[in-house]
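DM from R.C. (forwarded with permission)

"hey, sorry to bug you on a friday — could you get me a structure for this? deadline for the figure draft is monday and I only need the backbone to look sensible"
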Amino acid sequence: MIELLRQYWPNYLFSDGYNASGLVITLWLLVVSIVAGFLLAVPLAIARASRNRWISRPVWVYTYVFRGTPLYVQLLLCYTGLYSLHFVHANPVLGDFFRSAMNCTLLAFALNECAYATEIFAGAIRETSYGEIEAAQAYGMSKTKVYTRIILPSALRRALPSYSNEVILMLHATTLAFTATVPDILKVARDANSATYMTFQAYGIAAALYASIVFALIWGFRRLETRVLAYLKPQGH
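My reply, with the result:
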């Protein structure tokens, strides 16, 4: 049994010429989901914070649906639900896209991450001090410049602590990828457990890897927060 586990554990960390390791797949899922979600969330957060209900309401519906339903259900809808629709599997482009477990998983994760990030950023935008906006307007800045130079930079900095927690939660959510047969860390652990019946060792390695990634994320975000939020600390005289 121990020899079998020794054969499996490199699959957690090391890639061969044909297959990526569980660690690489997990990090790929996390990075793509976070980057795609962030890029989509910034403009949606601006729309969500708008006083125009025709602009903010559709975004509210989107975030309400994706935050109000389990990510697992969203993954199943992307992985098996959409492909069952005739216009999807009959279209060569859509059919090829939704036939891939990785594509469906990334789509579900990115849309879910975008919904949470949108609400985090929109809340930070609403909390922007009116004095900052008034000063920018008095300086002669247009509405676009006020957003790009004052509101967004300030809001994104203040949203960083909440956003860092969301990134860690997204890492935890990547464990659902194995249900779509994506070979992430948890999928490798399940395969090792099935072959060796050494449950504690198989899942213990997975737990140690996830904890290591979380530690690295926390360390990185703390360093970033110290740098970008330094202006909020009380200044000595």
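R.C.: lifesaver. The radius of gyration is 22 Å.
me: no worries. The chain is about 80% helix and 0% strand.
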